[in-house]
Amino acid sequence: MTFRTWVARRLTSELAIDEIVTVPLTLDTPTAGVANTGEEVVYTLPALQGLVDVRVTGATTPTVKLLRSNGLDPVTEAVAVDGHLFWADASNLPLFVSVSNAGAFTITASQRLRTTATPEVEPNEPPSSEVIAAGDGISGTLGGADTVDAWRFDATAGAKVFAVTLPLTGSIYQLTGTLAIRDSNGTLLQSDNTSGDGFYPGIYGFAIPADGSYSLELSASSTGNYVLFFDIDP
User: CA-CA distance, 152 to 79, in Å (whole number)?
Assistant: First the structure.
């Protein structure tokens, strides 16, 4: 399916409306584009509640931003790393991807509904952690005696880890959660509790320090459900 952009009257950048380049975008298909100095290419994506996974590659590392339909305001928590934007959205509003400072580039965008996630299998807390792999989506519930779910994965030095959460159902403020990455000794390497939609956490582009086995943990101080999407860039 192909979607074409539109430009709102209010822009958050300093670019004039006539400097915004609008082009069609087909999901799951690499699309070539050009964003020269002073230009911004804006692609539109259909509304969904789930994963938005965008990769932009080119000779120059681009500036990639996620925008919502209400005036093209940026989603400040959605941070692209090396042109990879990995975000879980619960708004069910149309979304826009802005590419600038890229020169010639290729963009590939995909989406995944939260309802396609695979339910977790208990027990799923240390040391009985499930294996998680790039591209996985897992759903579960935390609360009461079950305050932590955990997964293990192998990665090589320099690989970048992306993990983001959103609710399976209900409010984006129901789960006060923390995502954490630990090494095989249990040492905390990275954590977040503010970078997803609402109170849901996200980790974007954490660089693995050495070849080895690692764990990803989702903990919560409240009761709620979640969907976790996971990816690794080698």
Answer: 24
Furthest-apart CA pair in the chain: how many Å? 57
In Å, how far from its chain's centre is CA 93? Answer: 16
Q: What does the DSSP 8-state code read for residue 17? A: G
Ramachandran quadrant class, 223 (left: phi over 0; alpha: psi -120 to 50; beta: rest): beta
Which pLDDT value is given to residue 167?
97
Ramachandran sector of residue 139 (left: φ over 0; alpha: ψ -120 to 50; beta: rest): beta
Q: In whole angstroms, how far apart are CA 130 and each of 10, 102, 133, 151, 231?
A: 46, 39, 10, 5, 15
Find the Cα–Cα–Cα–Cα dihedral 55, 60, 66, 69, rounded to 10°. Answer: -110
Q: What predicted TM-score, i.e. pTM, was given to this entire model?
A: 0.89
pLDDT beyond 60 at 213: yes
CA angle 213, 152, 118 (to 5 degrees): 150
Q: What is the pLDDT of residue 17?
A: 41
pLDDT(190) > 80: yes
| SS3 (DSSP) at 76 | coil
Query: Which tokens belong to 20?
Result: 């915004």
Mean pLDDT for the chain overall: 88
d(CA 163, CA 21): 31
Give the span between the Cα atoms of 155 and 151, in whole angstroms: 13
> 21 - beta bridge partners?
41
Strand partners, 24: 4
Which residue type does 157 have?
A
Extract the tokens encoding 129: 């952690």
Give the tokens for residue 198: 């609402």
